[in-house]
């Protein structure tokens, strides 16, 4: 499977975004491969308003909804971007597209899957 271009919108302190962070740490994809395909856009908690705000200027366009959120960018003309909102769905998608990179975390049997599921 060709690795597409993706953008991950994340709030590193948040519980569900942290699941993706821990997954990427455990997966250990070589940085030059990860950086070539996955752009990470961070948000932070603004204590004065209680809102989650972008740390980037100009503020990137994030699909509405919760964090984490990942956009898989269209690769061909006529294709549409795909937006993934659920953290577990993001992990499963990353495990598929980075099949040939980093450590396999999907587990080849029940025992391996039980061991590898610690990051979930
Ligand atoms: N089931 C979702 C839950 C995501 C979620 O609730 N994220 C929180 C941050 S930890 C959030 O975005 N809260 C603010 C909001 O929903 O606007 C997942 O697994 O990704």
Question: What does this entry look like structurally?
Answer:
Residues 4-102 form the GST N-terminal domain. This is GST N-terminal domain-containing protein. Pfam families: GST_N_2. There is one protein chain. Helix 1 packs parallel to helix 3. The chain has four helices and five strands; from the N terminus they run E-H-H-E-E-E-E-H-H. The protein has 120 residues and is α+β, with helices and mostly antiparallel strands. The chain has a single domain, classed as 3-Layer(aba) Sandwich (Glutaredoxin), CATH 3.40.30.10. The relative contact order is 0.24. Strand 2 (38-46) and strand 3 form a beta hairpin. Bound molecules: glutathione. Glutathione binds next to helix 1 and helix 3.
